[in-house]
Amino acid sequence: MTADLTGKVALVAGGTRGAGRGIAVELGAAGATVYVTGRSTRKQRSEYDRPETIEETAEMVTAAGGRGIALRVDHLVASEVEALVGRIRTDEGRLDILVNDIWGGENLTEWDKPVWEHSLENGLRMLRLAIDTHFITARYALPLMIERPGGLLVEMTDGTAEYNATHYRLNPYYDLVKTGVIRMAWAHAKDLEKHRCTAVSMTPGWMRSEMMLEIFGVTEETWRDSTIAPPHFVISETPRFVGRAVAALAADSDRARFNGQSLSSGGLAKLYGFDDVDGSRPDCWRYMDEVVEAGKGADAAGYR
């Protein structure tokens, strides 16, 4: 399936890197105008202190065939988000797709620690970055989106509803964030369906983000050669894969059938027939259940 989003306007909140960048680029490849927001610019980095910037993502959107527009926005500051949506209203007069991908918690997460051992300051900051930002963005962006029927809200998370319901996600803060966003999408769906709009939660699989590649000492071209990545890294996928999932969903005229549901890149690839950039079709969450949980050795045969 080739997605066609010509004439559509999207906002990817948190589009600096990772899934947000992959989604923005694929929406652009489908012909959309994509507003890319975040706090890392060529003039000033966020506390992540990484090289990726919103300008870089916007340029990639344009190079892919869309129109990329980078705007620095702190999504914890309501006035900045309100001004952002005002700009979109003035310049475009519409908003068809909102992707809430704001996260920012990697450096705050203390893995495998109970609440009494985890930094309270870091945990509460994680909640603010991953929950409050999504609500603030929805508060100001959804009134513009519902002015036209057919709008799509995508709440990005980690893990499907089914997987997260039975798996402890490594610490209480991270667990709450990733399950909470799924419920958030379900709740928004109840309100949006009255306006003939759709809300879903979406998860990639094990994503080869810029940060992940750096941690494992590889590039996208050499990722299979890492000597320090866990064996099950064989099921990993690029950020563009979940981007193609979002683009395909946005281009589906019957997407309302998914309203309120928890979706995944691998699951939608089966439905819409798209592949990752290397031509494979990784199905991470099925792999997690059937290989990892079953205690089998790492082998992606039949899963990509």
Give the low-confidence spans: none
Report the helical percentage: 40-55%
For the largest beta-sheet, the strand count, sense and barrel status come to: 7 strands, parallel
CATH class: Alpha Beta
Q: Would you tell me which CATH topology applies?
A: Rossmann fold
Strand content: 5-15%
Give the integer mean of the pLDDT values.
96
Kindly name the structural category. Answer: alpha/beta
Widest sheet, order of strands: 3-2-1-4-5-6-7
Radius of gyration: 18 Å
Individual helix count: 10
Order of helices and strands: EHEHEHEHEHHEHHEHH
Broad shape? globular
Terminal CA distance reads 18 Å
CATH architecture descriptor name: 3-Layer(aba) Sandwich
The name of the CATH superfamily reads NAD(P)-binding Rossmann-like Domain
Main features:
7 strands, single chain, alpha/beta, 304 residues, 42% helix, Rossmann fold, 10 helices, 7-stranded parallel β-sheet
What does this protein look like?
The protein is α/β, with parallel strands linked by helices and 304 residues long. The protein has one domain: Rossmann fold, CATH 3.40.50. 42% of the residues lie in helices and 12% in strands. A seven-stranded parallel sheet has the order 3-2-1-4-5-6-7, with helices on both faces. α4 links the parallel β4 and β5. α4 runs parallel beside α6. The protein is globular, with a radius of gyration of 18 Å. The two termini are 18 Å apart. The mean pLDDT is 96.
Compile the SSE list and pairings:
Layout: E1 9-13, H1 18-29, E2 33-38, H2 54-64, E3 67-72, H3 78-92, E4 97-100, H4 120-145, E5 152-156, H5 161-166, H6 172-192, E6 198-203, H7 210-215, H8 239-251, E7 262-264, H9 265-272, H10 284-292
Parallel strand pairs: 1-2, 1-4, 2-3, 4-5, 5-6, 6-7
Helix pairs in contact: 1-2, 1-8, 3-4, 4-6, 8-9
